[in-house]
Amino acid sequence: MKPWILGLTGGIGSGKSAVAEHFVDLGVHLIDADHAARWVVEPGRPALARIAEHFGPTVLQADGTLDRGALRSRVFQDAEQRRWLESLLHPLIGEEIVSYLAQAKSPYAILVSPLLIESGQHRLTQRVLVVDAPEQLQLQRTMRRDKASEEQVRAILQAQAHREERLRHADDVLINDRDLPWLRSEVERLHHFYLTLRGGQP
Fold first, then answer.
1. Are 1-28+107-202 and 35-105 in the same CATH fold?
2. Which has the least CB within 10 A, 67, 108, 127, 201?
3. Cα→Cα distances 182→4, 22, 133, 138, 185, Å
4. Which residues bind ATP (predicted)?
């Protein structure tokens, strides 16, 4: 029986990493889209060669690995180059995610992605869980965690999918505005519910 896929997302500072960790503790197979995005550009993978060919050697570090900062500054200023990069990477990241999730031994598996909705990765899932938190709490948590200023965090909040858009795609919403023991008990409650589902739908 192939596992069904739960998409897990949430804004910065919402607590989605804490939620993801607890699902893993409960034995659920999980892949982080950010990790998949890193794997596809590792040395020896075709994507890295294509990127170097397209942008030139300045996007590589001396050891042959991708210089993310250099690449970011190239695509940040140029929408056309960004689209080229996305059209190369998105399908590869999708394949990486799908093949990894297909190996799952748990009844369902989780795809964690901060950009689940924006990137279209929610199309790989049968159900979406959004971890949400009041904006003030998101700000406080992120400023504390990243030692960032309020302006920096607000800019990231602006750039991420708006809360309404995320919630519109959600099958389940976990409002994370209490303490960790409470959060864990909520994850366990959802986990037991998910175990009763076939293909992600009741």
1. yes
2. 201
3. 26, 12, 14, 17, 5
4. 13-18
pTM over 0.85: no
Point out the annotated binding site for ATP: 13-18
CATH 2.40.10.340 fits 35-105, yes or no: no
pLDDT digit string (tens) for 146-187?
887 888 777 776 755 577 888 999 999 999 998 899 999 999
pLDDT tens track for 66-123:
999 999 888 888 889 999 999 999 899 999 998 999 899 999 999 999 889 888 899 9
Q: Residue ranges of the domains in the chain? A: 1-28+107-202, 35-105
Q: Which residues are annotated as a binding site?
A: 13-18
Dihedral over Cα of 26, 163, 94, 34: its sign: negative
Which candidate, 11, 8, 33, 15, places its Cα nearest to that of 164?
A: 11
Collapsing DSSP states into helix, strand and coil, what is residue 116? coil
Query: Candidates 3.40.50.450, 2.40.50.200, 3.30.70.20, 3.40.50.300; correct CATH number of 1-28+107-202?
Result: 3.40.50.300
Q: Which of 174, 183, 179, 194 is nearest to 27 (CA)?
A: 194
Phi-psi region of 64 (alpha: psi -120 to 50; beta: other; left: phi over 0): left
